[in-house]
Specification:
It is built from 10 helices and 6 strands, in the order βαβαβααβααβαααβα. With 269 residues, the chain is an alpha/beta fold. The chain binds adenosine-5'-triphosphate and magnesium ion (MG).
Length: 269
């Protein structure tokens, strides 16, 4: 049972049609099925990760995008944190450095794509180059409007070479963002997370919404689908992402390699 909204390739996304407060079949955080389901899925993920690593032939790239306070860090902590650190990497993309800006927008991203056997999670990604770059007018329109096609081709290349790509947009409401930002301000132990620079971005909520809808519509493909995750409830968001990752890895079905020797013929002296 899928808890996310997988975007059909070629469909036009309207985020207004997806309720960020959705909780699927669950009554609430205290529903006893919630903790059980998350614990089970995290265990499944660990087992699948082990098989992917042992097989060593394919990789998984997970893209996480959200507005500020959308829950990327919490998702990483709860869903990715428990995995084996040998073969999972998290890469956070900040505003590009001078050197990075000296290259095409995919240059810095490609370098961090996962190697075979591994899982890499992008905390922000090349999508910033059609989101913040577009809305904040960091690059001219002639440039960003061609990028959707380049992104699809890039992700196609990864897929052709053995990397599964799955992309999550953590969908929160503007009211929930306000609540979370206020909480950061009010709590001395969370205040360090408050970034006044998030406010000019919040002021452009509607433009970001439009830019997200365009990116989700143009770049949800058979080989690299977008999933919209209702994310006003942190517990539901974690469940939904874990579930989608389990489904993806189960579909990949990595296999332990056959030994190159006959194990029965080996005697340990
Ligand atoms: P936190 O939850 O810790 O604030 P964050 O992902 O918001 O996490 P920050 O260091 O606050 O991390 O923000 C990174 C900033 O870098 C974001 O404002 C993002 O829009 C910006 N950024 C990322 N990629 C690009 C890009 N390609 N071009 C321009 N800005 C970018
Ligand atoms: Mg930030």
């Amino acid at each position: 049972m899928s808890l996310t909204h997988r975007i059909e390739p070629g469909s036009k996304v309207s985020l207004d049609d997806i309720d960020p407060g959705e909780t699927g079949p669950y009554r609430g955080k205290d529903d006893p099925r919630v903790q059980r389901q998350l614990a089970e899925d995290v265990e499944r993920l660990k087992a699948l990760q082990e098989r992917l690593y042992a097989e060593g032939k394919r990789a998984l790239l997970v893209v996480l995008q959200a507005m500020d306070a959308g829950g990327k860090d919490g998702t990483l902590r709860h869903v990715v944190g428990p995995l084996d650190s040998r073969s999972v990497h998290v890469v956070a993309f900040k505003a590009p450095s001078d050197e990075e800006r000296g290259h095409d927008f995919l240059w810095r991203v490609h370098a961090h794509a996962p190697r075979k056997g591994e899982i890499t999670v992008f905390n922000r990604s090349h999508y910033e180059d059609v989101l913040v770059a577009r809305v904040m007018k960091l690059v001219p329109k002639e440039l960003w409007r061609r990028r959707y096609e380049h992104i699809n081709a890039f992700e196609r290349l990864l897929a052709d070479e053995g990397t599964r790509v799955i992309k999550f947009f953590l969908h929160i409401s503007k009211g929930e963002q306000k609540r979370r930002l206020e909480e950061r301000l009010a709590d001395p132990e969370k205040r360090w997370k408050f970034d006044p620079g998030d406010l000019p971005v919040r002021a452009k909520w509607a433009e970001f919404r439009k830019a997200y809808e365009r990116a989700l519509s143009e770049c949800s493909t058979e080989w690299a689908p977008w999933h919209v995750v209702p994310a006003d409830n942190k517990w539901y968001r974690n469940l939904a992402v874990a579930r989608a990752l389990v489904e993806t890895l189960e579909d990949m079905d990595p296999k332990f390699p056959k030994p190159a020797f006959d194990p029965r013929s080996v005697v340990i002296p």
